[in-house]
Amino acid sequence: MARSSRSVPLTGRVVVITGGARGIGRATAQAFLAAGAHVAIGDLDAALAARTATEFAGHGRIIGLPLDVTDPDSFAAFVDAAERELGPMDVLINNAGIMPSGLFAAEDPAMTDRILDINVRGVMTGTRLALRRFVPRGTGHLINIASLAGTAGMPGLATYCASKHAVIGFTEAVHLEHADTGIQITAVLPGNVRTELSAGANMPPWVLKATTIEPEAVATAILESIGHNRPLLTIPRPLSPVIRLSSLLPYRLRRLTSNLTGMTTAFTHPNPQARAHYHRRITESPTHP
Prior knowledge:
Largest sheet: 7 strands, parallel
Low-confidence stretches: 1-6
Distance between the termini: 19 Å
Structural class: alpha/beta
């Protein structure tokens, strides 16, 4: 369970998390509960959201609700229900997202639309709903979960990379629009997180060891970001200067580095068995990781 030594009190704060039944969302819900916050988690898998809330009920006040982030009415109903049960929302974490892998030429256009609907339009809808509540009060913290994949292009993840590039640019713009208002807006850029979403990545063991983090580490960083108006937060933080430096390398050297680290083939030739279950879940009964 994540703990924090940060000074900004979270006791009684209302934290709303999309895609909260699994992975980063689930770990983040647990971390905020441990810090004394009241938490609402939403997920397309409504039964799993309810079970997760029941599981964590002994740790604090939490509710699990159905949510389809691609449907603005569903999103609005989710936030309204969370506020009726817990009080005015203090923090919204737009975490819901999907990451199918494979070559773009073979990607079903329907899946392309779904990635963009969840990863981009869902974030925009949540941002609009949050700001309509935060702006009149002059307070609130919006956190959009992006990815380090949004700082470069990774073969096998073309649409996902596009969606996370969009989230980073969108969040930076909205952050600047509200920089002097008391409203805090942050894009969180995790590296390779050990969840179902990134299962089967074909990278050398030393790269996986150096770059893979647990969802609890992301949750802790999110928790500690509250009260600090950072536009971008890279997790793990030591990767931030590495990312900046790599963007300055000549193209051929970047290609060589990508080949040596396995980034070129990580998701063009992943472990098929490890990816199969995730792809089946988001295709047959799409839910948010």
